[in-house]
Design a protein that fits this description.
Blueprint: H1 2-15, H2 18-21, E1 47-51, H3 69-82, H4 89-94, E2 97-101, E3 108-109, E4 112-113, H5 118-135, E5 139-143, H6 145-155, H7 163-166, E6 171-175, E7 178-185, H8 196-208
Parallel strand pairs: 1-2, 1-5, 5-7
Antiparallel strand pairs: 3-4, 6-7
Length: about 220
């Protein structure tokens, strides 16, 4: 069931041209195939990471033909957080992790990646929600300010807009009739201000908490 469901969602994302039609600022709809996860999640997902958006050019998390800073940073953080060495995306999925972007198309300005507009984030919220419903995650961790604010909008949460503050809390939200844990952390694509240990702490913290409907 999840295979067909996931394929339907990804096809809907692939054919969407709403931002292009409405000329949403900065957003660039790829002329060819949009970048997407290389495989479906294995549910229930233990921890679902939500990133910002695919890059305008260069490497991408799910494209293992090239090095990607987000993938390498996250895999490195998982070593300390869970004591597990994840060597590739197949192992990432097999160990009940998953990742998808908040906005499904890249944003660009002057041939460089640009933060997605609020309009693009709002238009993609239903796609992200559909992915989460299909994956049935136990926990969701936003990788940075943009994905966290999008999730707050979707789940009607009031929280600080500062990563240094919202990373300290874990919220319990309802997703498809079940309780899911939600929090945020720093963007793992760089180690600015030595944030890697804090990302490790945040992953470890949310994995130690369990939803009230969890049988564990």
């Amino acid at each position: 069931m999840v295979i067909a469901e996931w394929q339907v969602i990804q096809q809907a994302i692939q054919t969407c041209r709403r931002c292009e039609t409405e000329q949403v600022p900065y957003l660039k709809v790829p002329r060819g195939q949009k970048r997407k996860p290389s495989s479906r999640p294995v549910r229930p997902v233990r921890l679902y990471f939500v990133s910002v958006a695919p890059p305008w050019g260069g490497a991408y998390f799910w494209d293992e033909t090239k090095r990607d800073a987000v993938r390498e940073g996250l895999f490195t953080a998982l070593i300390s957080a869970v004591g597990m060495k994840i060597r590739n995306c197949d192992e990432f999925i097999a160990n009940s992790f998953f990742l998808s972007p908040t906005v499904k198309c890249p944003s660009m300005c002057k041939e460089k990646d640009h933060a997605p507009s609020r309009q693009a984030i709002r238009y993609c919220q239903n796609f992200l929600l559909d992915e989460l419903l299909a994956a049935q995650p136990e926990r969701i961790l936003a990788l940075g300010k943009v994905p966290f604010e999008s999730l707050c909008d979707r789940f009607n949460l009031r929280a600080s807009k500062k990563v240094s503050e919202f990373r300290k809390e874990i919220w319990r939200v309802r997703l498809g009739g079940k309780e899911v844990l939600l929090s945020g952390t720093y963007f793992p694509g760089n180690n600015r201000n030595n944030q890697r240990p804090l990302i490790e702490q945040d992953i470890n913290r949310i994995l130690k908490e369990f939803p009230r409907n969890d049988s564990a």
